[in-house]
Write a structure and sequence with these properties.
Elements: H1 4-14, H2 21-27, H3 29-125, H4 128-158, H5 164-180, H6 191-195, H7 198-206, H8 213-224, H9 237-246
Helix pairs in contact: 1-3, 2-3
Length: 261
């Protein structure tokens, strides 16, 4: 309730040198307390005069702050909702991108397979003629199989004791008889290629068998004929080959002296 007018009326007294607590105590203790109280109230008014606008401004700012805080809370709620929507959309986007990458990978795999298939088809297209010829050759082999087997078995059974010249003569006579009996056979039949493969021949050569046709035919007769073969071997090449071939099979060698009369 202190007003500015009251403070102005007190100022002449407050400015006096003896208007203080020490001097008042000398006169009267109660007066000293009243003197100190009036000084304090005047000082309080001057301070409160500056504080009141600040309090009013504080209250105003606190009201603004509360309103701003409410707006902030509302905005934060909206932000959280939008963030949830954004997370959902981001998850959908990531899933779509993953699916897109998977589709791209599948498309690339399909494209690579298609290119390989195209290259294979183009490559196989050039094999058509060879396959057609091979198919025709297989048909001829089926038709000529009986005659070819007959020549092969005759060769194994009867041509062992003869040299190359007589073996060829036997084959020519057999083919003539087969022509008369109308038994089909391959005109260009290679008995060596029919009865043994190149890998086996190569292995025989490493074991000491010569590479000429007669020696290879002898090797075929030795390994495939059902009878015990007789080798006339003046140079000892056949003996070396048999020893090398059968050394792991427990071959026993018997030496027999023959006298010719």
């Amino acid at each position: 309730s202190i007003t500015e007018e009251t403070v102005e009326l007190l100022e002449p007294y407050l400015d006096m040198e003896d208007y203080n607590l020490e001097t008042a105590k000398k006169v009267c203790g109660n007066v000293a307390g009243l003197c100190s109280w009036t000084q304090a109230m005047a000082y309080f008014y001057s301070i409160n005069k500056e504080v009141l606008p600040l309090k009013a401004n504080l209250a105003l700012q606190e009201g603004r702050l509360a309103a701003a805080q409410m707006e902030l809370n509302s905005a934060q709620i909206q932000l959280d909702e939008k963030q949830m929507e954004l997370d959902e959309v981001q998850a959908m986007y990531d899933a779509a991108m993953k699916e897109k990458q998977a589709l791209l990978d599948d498309a690339e795999t399909c494209r690579r397979k298609m290119n390989n298939a195209t290259a294979l088809i183009e490559g196989l297209g050039g094999e058509k003629l060879r396959w057609t010829a091979s198919s025709k050759n297989f048909q001829n082999q089926i038709v000529n199989l009986v005659g070819n087997v007959l020549l092969a078995t005759g060769f194994l059974s009867y041509s062992g004791p003869f040299n190359q010249e007589y073996r060829n003569l036997l084959l020519q006579l057999w083919k003539k008889e087969m022509d008369n009996s109308k038994i089909p056979y391959s005109k260009n039949l290679n008995l060596t290629g029919m009865l043994v493969d190149n890998a086996t021949v190569g292995e025989w050569n490493l074991q000491g068998l010569p590479n000429d046709d007669l020696s290879i035919q002898n090797g075929i007769i030795v390994t495939k004929a059902s009878r015990y073969p007789l080798l006339i071997d003046p140079q000892g090449q056949g003996k070396i080959w048999i020893k090398n071939k059968e050394k792991n099979n427990g071959l026993q060698v018997k030496i027999v002296n023959l006298q010719v009369f």
